[in-house]
Amino acid sequence: MESEIMNVLLVHAHPEPHSLNGSLAHFTVQHLQHSGHGVQVSDLYAMQWKATLDTGDDLAFRAGEHFDPSANSKRAYDTGMQSADITHEQEKLRWADAVILQFPLWWFSMPAILKGWIDRVYACGFAYGVGEHSDTHWGDRYGEGLLSGKRAMLVITAGGWASHYAPRGINGAMDDILFPIQHGILFYPGFDVLPPHVIYRTGKIDDAGFEQVRKELGQRLDTLGTTTPIAFRKQNAGDYNIPELTLRTDLAPGETGLGIHVRQDPA
Ligand code: FAD
After folding, report:
1. Which residue intervals define the domain Flavodoxin-like fold in the entry (predicted)?
2. Domain that holds residue 131
3. Full-prediction pTM beyond 0.90?
4. Which tens digits make up the pLDDT trace of 233-264?
5. Which of 202, 204, 213 to mutate to test the pocket of ligand 1 (most atoms within 8 A of CB)?
6. Which atom of ligand 1 is nearest to the CA of 107?
7. Residue nearest to atom 45 of ligand 1 (CA)
8. Which of 4, 145, 163, 265 sits most deeply, having the most CB atoms within 10 A of its CB?
9. Does residue 240 sit within a domain?
10. Which residues touch 178 (CB under 8 Å, ≥6 apart)?
């Protein structure tokens, strides 16, 4: 099935435009535009994105005040006093129907500049601290929130082999390594999270391999609007005890670990 026309935001992080990541970001923009999608790009190194969340993010902050990262973030968000670069990225997120985060796996996670984009753009009142908090509703998060209804997908390059990241691989299963990003960063503010697209063993990619990599990425881009999201359990849909926020004992009985937060019987 063809994807409907969407607004797609590509956020990518690599210091070298002619790297594999730079080439794939360029390919992604061309491919999506050729398919008729609207595309915006946040090329974090090219933008010289400021990665550190600090007092400069709240334009109303005065020297000598105590800086509280969450409280100042909320005040700045609520009063229109956020640093302009933060507001601009939030507007791109509001515009997008789908968001792609593309990066090389660095130390089993994202490059620091991208983490800094999350830390600063995900303001209190925007990506967290949203919705009613009560004994029965612990905020709008994990499947609800301002970014619900939008899709998100990780496109990652990794030096290691696929087998190193298999369920019994020494690096740990890729699903587990990506859980903090896919569940904690993307599902938390409401995104429907698509299965990741991981390109392994990057050191061995030659010209023929690069063509194959582009072909497989193109297929994922063509199905951005139709791929079934990961069946993460929604916080407020009845699967969790609230306010403990533990999974009900009759669901995945006796099991523990990150996998219990994914439904095995998607509705
Ligand atoms: P590049 O080095 O730019 O390119 C990779 C290959 O693709 C090269 O062979 C190149 O010839 C080819 N290529 C690039 N562009 C083209 C093109 N246009 N046409 C044809 N061929 C092309 N790996 C892990 O698995 N786990 C980790 O935790 C991890 N941590 C790391 C931490 C750091 C700080 C660093 C620097 C690396 C780490 N790595 C890790 C490896 C890292 O994930 C890979 O080096 C990275 O994903 C490769 O992406 P790149 O864009 O830098 O590729």
Report:
1. 6-221
2. 7-230
3. yes
4. 999 999 999 999 999 999 999 999 999 999 99
5. 202
6. 28
7. 159
8. 145
9. no
10. 154, 156, 196
